[in-house]
Design goal:
- The chain is built from 17 helices and twelve strands.
- The chain has about 525 residues and is of the alpha/beta class.
- It has two domains: about 280 residues, Alpha-Beta Barrel (TIM Barrel), CATH 3.20.20; about 110 residues, no CATH class.
- Helix 12 crosses helix 15 and helix 15 crosses helix 16.
- It starts with a strand and ends with a helix.
C-alpha cells in the first residue's frame, strides 16, 4: 500500500492556505471540478513539489441500476493520469435514474440486498477494467434506510470486496452519521469489514438537528468522529487520513489545528496486528501516459462485465459535491470541456432553449407500480437485478425530487427531511455555479425563494449547469423578475450562456398557458 500520510481536501477557496500548511502529505480533489489540460495553479504547484493528489469522483453512481457511463469513466481515468495519482476513489451510491430521467444531485444509499450487490459488483468490475489505476469506494452517509434489506453494512462491504477486489475508503464521519440516523454500530462495521482492503480514511464535521445528523463538511470535526478514527487505528494502520471541508471555511490556523487533532487521534490508537489476508499493494504515482490494464483474472467470480461503450448506458450528472469550477480551469463559456466533464455555459453546451412548460418527466404515471415490480421479478441474472433495482430507485428518487408518493416501507418523515435537503442543496449549488443569479434577483433570500418554487415542479435531469439555465428560462417565460432592469440583465445572462435568443413574448405566453393547462 502506498503511504499517503495526513492530507486535506483541496478546494479553490482554501488553495493558498493548503500550500502553506506545515506537514501536509497529500490532497484529494473532486475529479469533476478540474480539467486535466487546465489544472488550477495551486494544484499544479503542489504536483510540481511532489505532493500526491488523488481524484475523488462524485458522479459515476456505481450503485445505480445502469452500467457506468463510458465517458465518465474515461474522464476519471484521464484525471488520474494527469495528476499522477496512485488510485481513484468513488462512492457506493446511486445518483440518478434513467427511466424516468432524474438527477438526485446527491449521493443516495443503495439497498443492501442481493440484487443491489449483484448490480454494484458488475458495475465495479466494468469500472476497474476501464480505469488505469486501482479504484477505492467510500461508504456514504445516509438519512434513511431501505425497507427489506438482507445484509448488514459489514456483510455488504465484505462481499463487495471479496467479489471484486475493490479497495475501501472508510469515512468515519459517515459511520457516525449512520449511527445517529440509522442506528448502526460503527464498531460492528469496523469489526466486520476487511480492513486489509483499506485504501485511506475520510474525516469530516457535521451537525445534529432534531435528532438527525447532517454530514455537512462545513463544521469542525467533533470529538466523537476523532474517537472513531482512533477506534479504526486500533485495528489497522491506515495508509492515509484526509480532512474534508467543503463550505464555511475556517481560518488557516483552525485548519492546521484540525489536522493536528487528526494526527493525535491516529497516534492514540495502538498498532494493529498484521492480518492474514493481503491485497496487492497500490503502485506509486503512475507514469504518463498510463496504459489501460487488462481485465484481471481474479475478477472471474460472479457475472462477467459487459465491456465496450456500446453496452454502457447512463445519463449525465454534474458534480454532486461542490461543483464550482476551480481557478485556472478551462473557462465555462466558449471552451470545450474535457471528456466526461459536465457541459459548460458556452454556446456549444446548449442546443437551444428548452420548453419550460413541458410535462413533468417524473409525474405519478412515471413511477413503477406493483405490476411492473412483479413483472421485473420474472427476470433472472444481473439484467433482472438491474430491472428490479431500477424500479425501486426510480420510485424513491421520484418521491424525493418530483413529489410523487413515498414508496411503501420507507420512513416518510425521513424522506421528507431528505427531500428538503436535496432542494436546499440544489439551490445552493446552482448559486455557486451561477453566482450572478442571486445578484440579479435581489439577493440570497429572493433568489432562494424563487428557486425553491421552481424546483418544486421541475426535477433536475441534466446537472447543475443546465439547471441554472432552465431556472433562468423559467423566470423569463413568466416575465420575471418584475423589475424591467433586472429582467434585461437576466435575459442578457441567459443569452450569453445559452447561445440563443429567448423566446418572444407571444411564445412565452403560449407556453405559460400550456403549462397551466397541464
Amino acid at each position: 500500500m502506498a503511504h499517503l500520510g495526513v492530507g486535506i481536501g483541496w478546494r479553490p477557496e482554501i488553495a493558498d492556505a493548503v500550500e502553506r500548511l506545515d506537514g501536509l502529505d497529500w490532497v484529494e480533489v473532486v475529479a469533476e471540478n478540474i480539467c486535466p489540460g487546465h489544472l488550477p495553479d495551486g494544484l499544479r504547484r503542489l504536483r510540481e513539489r511532489g505532493t500526491r493528489i488523488v481524484p475523488h469522483g462524485v458522479s459515476l453512481g456505481l450503485g445505480g441500476a445502469d452500467r457506468p457511463d463510458a465517458e465518465k469513466l474515461a474522464a476519471l481515468g484521464e484525471r488520474a493520469v494527469a495528476l499522477g495519482a496512485p488510485l481513484v476513489t468513488e462512492h457506493i451510491a446511486f445518483v440518478r435514474t434513467s427511466s424516468p430521467l432524474l438527477e438526485a444531485g446527491h449521493l443516495l444509499p443503495v439497498p443492501r440486498t442481493r440484487d443491489a450487490l449483484d448490480v454494484l459488483c458488475e458495475n465495479v468490475r466494468i469500472a476497474q477494467d476501464a480505469l488505469p489505476v486501482p479504484l477505492a469506494l467510500e461508504n456514504i452517509a445516509a438519512l434513511f434506510s431501505w425497507p427489506g434489506e438482507e445484509m448488514t453494512e459489514g456483510q455488504f462491504l465484505t462481499e463487495l470486496v471479496e467479489r471484486t477486489g475493490v479497495r475501501l475508503l472508510v469515512d468515519v464521519a459517515n459511520l457516525h452519521t449512520n449511527r445517529v440516523n440509522r442506528g448502526e454500530d460503527p464498531a460492528a462495521v469496523l469489526d466486520a469489514i476487511p480492513l486489509e482492503a483499506l485504501a485511506y480514511v475520510h474525516v469530516a464535521g457535521g451537525v445534529e438537528r432534531a435528532g438527525v445528523w447532517h454530514d455537512t463538511h462545513a463544521h469542525p470535526v467533533p470529538p466523537v468522529v476523532l474517537d472513531l478514527l482512533a477506534e479504526l487505528r486500533s485495528r489497522v494502520e491506515p495508509a492515509g487520513v484526509l480532512l474534508e471541508r467543503d463550505d464555511d471555511f475556517p481560518p488557516e490556523a483552525e485548519l492546521a489545528g484540525e489536522l493536528a487533532a487528526i494526527r493525535a487521534a491516529v497516534a492514540a490508537g495502538r498498532p494493529a496486528p498484521v492480518r492474514a489476508r493481503a491485497l496487492r499493494p497500490l503502485p506509486g504515482p503512475a507514469p504518463l501516459p498510463v496504459p489501460l490494464p487488462a481485465p484481471r483474472a481474479a475478477r472471474a467470480a460472479g457475472p462477467q462485465p459487459v465491456p465496450g461503450p456500446e453496452a454502457v448506458a447512463g445519463a449525465g450528472l454534474g458534480p454532486v459535491a461542490e461543483p464550482v469550477p476551480a481557478p485556472g480551469a478551462a473557462p465555462v463559456s466558449g471552451a470545450t470541456p474535457a471528456a466526461g466533464a459536465e457541459p459548460g455555459f458556452g454556446p456549444q453546451a446548449v442546443a437551444g432553449p428548452q420548453a419550460v412548460a413541458r410535462a413533468n418527466p417524473a409525474g405519478p404515471e412515471a413511477v413503477p407500480g406493483p405490476e411492473a415490480v412483479a413483472a421485473a421479478r420474472a427476470f433472472g441474472g444481473v439484467e433482472g437485478a438491474r430491472t428490479r433495482v431500477g424500479l425501486g430507485q426510480a420510485a424513491l428518487l421520484s418521491a424525493l425530487v418530483a413529489g410523487t408518493p413515498v414508496p411503501e416501507g420507507f420512513d416518510r418523515a425521513r424522506i421528507r427531511v431528505q427531500a428538503r435537503a436535496l432542494a436546499a442543496k440544489r439551490a445552493d449549488v446552482v448559486a455557486k455555479v451561477a453566482p450572478e443569479l442571486p445578484g440579479i434577483l435581489g439577493g440570497r433570500d429572493p433568489y432562494r425563494e424563487a428557486f425553491l418554487a421552481y424546483a418544486k415542479h421541475r426535477p433536475m435531469t441534466a446537472g447543475y449547469r443546465r439547471d441554472a439555465l432552465d431556472f433562468a428560462e423559467h423566470l423569463l417565460i413568466r416575465d420575471l423578475p418584475a423589475d424591467p432592469a433586472a429582467r434585461r440583465r437576466l435575459t442578457a445572462w441567459w443569452r450569453e450562456r445559452a447561445g440563443a435568443r429567448p423566446p418572444r413574448r407571444i411564445v412565452r405566453w403560449a407556453r405559460a398557458l400550456a403549462g397551466r393547462a397541464a
